[in-house]
């Protein structure tokens, strides 16, 4: 067995990490995570860490669920792999497609499988182009996305995302993708300064979409893509007025709506799908992460009947797919995972019990001298750090207060994500009230240490 130092040295020598500054990593030393159970993981030094991020928003049923492991082992033994290209299928992929159609909102009967959320969003782009081409409207090419969105890391998915730092590396976005503003709370603060309440601000943010459509020419727009609640952008919960207006605008100009459910899907917001929480009616839905609770990679697109009918009845061959589309082992794990979510009644628990409890407990942090605001939706939440909580005055970005807080969390046995100065939690959906209390206690401790350091 290797020591932690040996793992760190081998890691530094060979492993290029995603979204990581390797110089900074080398100076601090990488943390080696060796096992997990429930909502906790352990590192190679034996420290227990409460994983308030569910890995990367994905381990919805928590770590160490034997039903998922057994499903994978059974499928690997029986048939580890077969494809769906050669006019062939596998019972397990069919069963999962059937199950997802049953769980999806009305009007979704078909699914296209991928390995990841990024590939699923690439698939969306190809699907909407194909759809409009088949309808004889090839001039409908532009896909509108939102600033501050995250939709993945391939060229197309990173272009759909609205992260300036990602766009700056490599000349993104690719042509045909444009962005509009979204109801971010800082913009809302600006709105409030102009006398807008939350609902008026939500309508204004939706109006930015309509303005963009009109500026481009409605007949050139293929689709609008958005997360029901922006996740990686900092858990931006929109005002209640926003989504109904967006839906009205998409309907009015006959624009396809893509709901990116990679984070919000499978119970995170207290419904099976985030669009059900915010009240939108998408034509396409991207999913990944929670479909297998991250135990194995799987993603896909739920294809609503409006698009599916055109593709199937007029389409001929859709020249698109992946070696692992409908991978039997991934599908078997997904089926076991969805069965467990149902058995444990997790979606209702998030909606009626743990989600409201998290909101209540996080609200107790409002008295902390570093906390400007708290926002949550189901089991995804953000704690906004502020230099001046009463006025909401932000920290100078050079302060890197979020990263400092993240470090104090980790040192105190808690994983939280920092998005600028927003601290994020999105714990496994199996978390209990007592565990939420423990988690919020650890958050307060990390805030105290961050404050001490800021004052020193
Ligand atoms: N879409 C959203 C909303 C996401 O949060 C993510 C990943 O965090 C993706 C897409 C990309 O998924 P993946 O990392 O599986 O490619």
What does this structure look like?
Belongs to the class-III pyridoxal-phosphate-dependent aminotransferase family. This is Aspartate aminotransferase family protein. Helix 10 (198-216) runs parallel beside helix 11 (242-252). By secondary structure, the chain is an alpha/beta fold. It is globular, with a radius of gyration of 22 Å. The model has no long low-confidence stretch (mean pLDDT 95). Helix content is 44%, strand content 16%. The chain has a seven-stranded mixed β-sheet, sandwiched between helices. Strands 1-2-3-13 form a four-stranded mixed β-sheet. Strands 11-12-15-14 form a four-stranded antiparallel β-sheet, with helices on one face. Bound molecules: pyridoxal-5'-phosphate.
